[in-house]
Specification:
The chain starts with a helix and ends in a 17-residue tail after the last strand. Helix content is 30%, strand content 22%. Strands 1, 2, 3, 4, 5, 6, 7, 8 and 9 form a nine-stranded mixed sheet that branches. It has one domain: Hypothetical protein TT1679 (Rossmann fold, 3-Layer(aba) Sandwich). This is UPF0340 protein FC20_GL001423.
Length: 187
Amino acid sequence: MDLAEIEQQARQATKEIVEASKIKRGQIFVVGCSSSEVLGEKIGTNTSVDVAVALYKGISSVLDEKGIYMAAQCCEHLNRALVIKREAMEKYDFEQVNAIPQPNHAGGAFATIAYREMPDRVLVEDIKAKAEAGIDIGGTLIGMHIHPVVVPLRISLSKIGAANIICARRRPKYVGGQRAIYDESLM
């Protein structure tokens, strides 16, 4: 697997999601990732720290430039806890928990790398569905972290490496029924 290509795909996908979702500085972008799936293997069977590093570099380069917080989801063995900057935890009033993600035991490679690389990071159990947008790389189930109503985003990529990706954003709920007129810029 070409790590430079994986990094480039992650960067491109993130740019497209940021643009399409209209996520703003100071908002949260959730990332769920299976490095095994990126390598064409079943989730949890071929963890790769090298793949996780490439993905993290590609994604974080876009988010950091825009001032958007990344929330890196751990695997189910840590109950899908999230690695996030302390500043975001304090801003959104999340509760810190005590665990250190590991690539082959609990957490997964991507969360492990986020924990290692993200400045002033903490682990939180839940982000209270406050994410505005995100990417699910390899079927890791991120929807629970995105503020309702979650809608899929179609971008130019459908895969990163061999992993299917599902991109999502939130939109405000529609209210008012059939007589209502909606703001197209929020749809």
